[in-house]
Automatic annotation (TrEMBL):
Residues 280-628 form the Glycoside hydrolase family 20 catalytic domain. This is Beta-hexosaminidase. One of its GO terms (molecular function) is beta-N-acetylglucosaminidase activity. SUPFAM superfamilies: (Trans)glycosidases, beta-N-acetylhexosaminidase-like domain. It comes from the Eukaryota. It holds the Pfam family Glyco_hydro_20. Gene3D superfamilies: Chitobiase/beta-hexosaminidase domain 2-like, Glycosidases. One of its GO terms (biological process) is carbohydrate metabolic process. The active site is at 436 (proton donor). Residues 104-228 form the Beta-hexosaminidase eukaryotic type N-terminal domain. GO terms for cellular component: plasma membrane.
Length: 671
């Protein structure tokens, strides 16, 4: 029986650590202690009560393992435990086996990994700034605290669902030096490099030294450190590699997850705007609504895979879930239900949740096509062809809808939408969509045809391109006004404006970045690069993760089948795509190829299936864009299987790639 008159977190930790070695506190005591901690949290250091704890140490009865794993030829081989031998856990073997162990993506610089591991205590993980470094700004300091707390939570979570964590172990000190103490927002020129060193001090402490140019590099170093930490299910201990030296930075700085909810590649990059290369995910949240909780899981996967930009395709012709305070009618008319709406508070939550995980959120407002639901209140002819039939004559998929470029109300509403987006999304780039405009829709609208006639234009393709250019010019002015009068990089999808032979007539290469959604063999890619345009590659034959399922209009398979396996995603190199089209890969050309985005359009996806469509395939793209490995997917397969399990541990629900037997028997699942 223990009597405590001063109840603090420190006391509770001592009480809960009384049972060591082969015993753990009983469930009743754990519940009592945690409940008491909650009750006294608000006045933690005041003498409030006398609390009695009756601690019963319950011996663990785990049977002795019959299997062990040992590293041979860079593989962990499964063997029966012989008498007198101590079994080694599979994760402990993997932490000591192979050049890159279980790191994902693999580092691009120096990689020196030790050959032994140390036990650490979950109650003795601390992080502090180096005494030689400068004081962080308040915002960066807040991010530092958030990222280190997330690290500790993830370390403790390593044993979740597997077994208890013994309380004994060494302390782990993370000592950080962050050179840029002011940058708290990810920008296109943000330095993500880091140096990580793990060592053992003379007093037995494990020390992790991190040197990074920015908070975002520091966060990546924490992720690497976390991947060098395991829960040993044989000894029920937290263990870490006790010696390591890693220097690392991405090959493609723009690494994006675009959920359309579309998931695309990285942050957008630009020579003119001094931006880095890109990699990320695009997520479409309009065709089917995707909840904030699901978006958070996507961001957790991105953090684990070192993707840095979440491209949010937030509205479309199907629904308008983005709440615009200036025009609440947009969601009143356009949201599927009152609960399927993204409020300003929701968006701020997503942006900050992403930021502490090293991810920038880039908004896309797709126009002049892909609009419809939500605009019905705006007046006659603001939108045209909404729900027009037969839909095959007016759009690529139902429901149809486009903005009317000749109607001044269009630009008034767009201006307010843009203003609120810039207020909520902390991004230095903006995606204006601009794909799949249907000229037959405009050609069937009397007001538009009359406008063309008054301008001395006809009704041919080149005339409608002039009309589209009119829209893009006016909409861009509204974007710049929303951005306080400042210009910024603008992204557009490949479309009629970017067509063969006339892209330079409509789009300034110094201003626009072109996102490729056609196949990787499209000759237009080579033309755009040769003309000096910067590109982001989202070729649908490798990076459209909605492909390969049953049709949702008609029967058979959907339009972009077949299904795309992680192996093809891994081998989809933006550099190879360009060189295969005959482009000479000079240093200038490399700078124009900003990276890739994986995309998820959600016609057939919702909260129940979004994780499996995105993961772990987005992680395959992440290593391609971070490391651009010369090796094939075969050399990465075993690390990929482990990383998939890591995503599960982080709360993501990725698709299973192979039977678990393959993970436990490295090298036997081949063809």
């Amino acid at each position: 029986m223990f009597k405590v008159s001063l109840l603090t977190s420190a006391h509770l930790e001592v009480l809960l650590s009384l049972c060591v070695d082969t015993s753990e506190p009983s469930v009743d005591v754990l519940n009592l202690a945690h409940g008491a901690q909650r009750n006294f949290r608000k006045a933690e250091d005041l003498v409030l009560s006398v609390v009695f704890f009756n601690i019963t140490c319950v011996p663990q009865t785990n049977p002795s393992p019959v299997w062990t794993w040992s590293c041979r030829s860079d593989r962990c081989e499964k063997q029966l435990v012989v008498e007198g031998e101590t079994a080694q856990a599979l994760d402990a073997c993997k932490l000591l086996c192979g050049e890159y162990r279980v790191l994902w993506p693999k580092p691009t610089g120096v990689v020196q990994l030790g050959t032994s591991i140390a036990i650490i205590s979950q109650h003795a993980i601390t992080a502090e700034l180096s005494r030689s470094g400068r004081e962080l700004s308040p915002k960066v300091a807040e991010l530092f605290r958030g990222a280190t707390k997330l690290f500790r939570d993830n370390v403790v979570g390593l044993g979740k669902g597997i077994g208890p964590i013994r309380s004994v172990g060494r302390s782990l000190l993370i000592e950080a030096t962050i050179t840029d103490t002011e940058t708290a927002s990810f920008k296109s020129n943000t330095d993500e490099s880091y140096r990580l060193e793990i060592s053992e001090t003379t007093n037995g402490r494990i020390n992790s030294s991190i040197v990074a140019a920015t908070f975002f590099g520091f966060r990546h170093a924490l992720e690497t450190l976390l991947q060098l930490t395991i829960y040993n299910d044989v000894t029920q201990e937290l263990q870490i590699l006790d010696k390591a030296l890693i220097t690392d930075s991405p090959v493609f700085p723009h690494r994006v997850d675009y959920m359309r909810l579309a998931l695309k590649g990285m942050p957008l990059c630009s020579l003119v705007y001094n931006a880095p290369i890109c990699a990320g995910i695009l997520l479409d949240t309009a065709r089917n609504f995707i909840s904030v909780e699901s978006i958070k899981r996507t961001l957790n996967g991105m953090a684990a895979s070192k993707l840095n930009t979440f491209h949010w395709h937030i509205t479309d012709s199907h629904s308008f879930p983005f709440e615009v305070e200036s025009y609440p009618q947009l969601t009143q008319y356009g949201a599927y239900t009152t609960s399927k709406v993204f409020t300003p508070a929701d968006i701020r939550t997503v942006v900050e949740y992403a930021r502490v995980r090293g991810v920038r959120v880039v908004p896309e407002f797709d126009a002049p096509a892909h609009v419809g639901e939500g605009w019905q209140w705006a007046g006659p002819n603001v939108t045209v062809c909404v729900k027009a039939e037969p839909w095959t004559s007016y759009c690529v998929e139902p429901p149809c809808g486009q903005l009317n470029p000749t109607n001044g109300t269009v630009y008034e509403i767009l201006g307010e939408i843009y203003k609120e987006m810039f207020k909520l999304f902390d991004s230095d780039i903006f995606h204006m969509g601009g794909d799949e405009v249907n000229f037959n829709c405009w050609n069937s609208t009397e007001e538009i045809v009359t406008w063309l006639s008054n301008k001395g234009l006809g009704r041919q393709e080149e005339d409608f391109l002039e009309l589209w250019d009119e829209f893009q010019t006016k909409a861009l002015i509204k974007v710049e006004e929303a951005n306080g009068g400042a210009s910024l990089p603008i992204v557009l999808w490949t479309s009629g404006l970017t067509g063969k032979g006339h892209v330079e007539k409509y789009l300034d290469k110094e201003r626009y970045i072109i996102q490729i959604w056609t196949t990787g063999s499209d000759e237009l890619i080579g033309e755009l690069v040769n003309k000096g345009y910067r590109i982001i590659v989202s070729n649908y034959d490798a990076l459209y993760f909605d492909c390969g399922f049953g049709a949702w209009v008609g029967e058979g398979n959907n339009w972009c089948s077949p299904y795309i396996g992680w192996q093809k995603v891994y081998m989809n190199s933006p550099y190879d795509i360009v060189t295969n089209l005959g482009v000479n890969l000079t240093s200038d050309v490399r700078a124009q190829i900003l990276g890739s985005e994986a995309t998820l359009w959600t016609e057939q996806v919702d909260d129940s299936s979004v994780d499996g469509r995105l993961w772990p395939r987005s992680s395959a793209m992440a290593e391609r864009l971070w490391s651009n490995p010369a090796e094939s997917w075969r050399e990465a397969e075993y690390r990929m299987l482990h990383h998939r399990e890591r995503l599960v541990q982080r709360g993501v629900q990725p698709e299973s790639l192979e039977p678990l037997w393959c993970l436990q028997n490295h090298g036997y699942c081949y063809l």
